[in-house]
Design brief:
Elements lengths: L21 H4 L14
């Protein structure tokens, strides 16, 4: 394997009602990946 560096700054919101806080967390020019599971 070749040497490499990986940096992944991530903020994850957990818990009930957190979907309401998403809009305040995302900068206007951001690209996001949002996943959802019903379990």
């Amino acid at each position: 394997m070749q040497n490499f560096s990986f940096h992944n700054p991530v903020k994850i919101l957990f818990g009930k009602g957190q979907i309401a806080n998403i809009a305040t967390e995302i900068p206007t020019n951001a690209k996001i990946l949002m996943t959802y599971g019903g379990g």
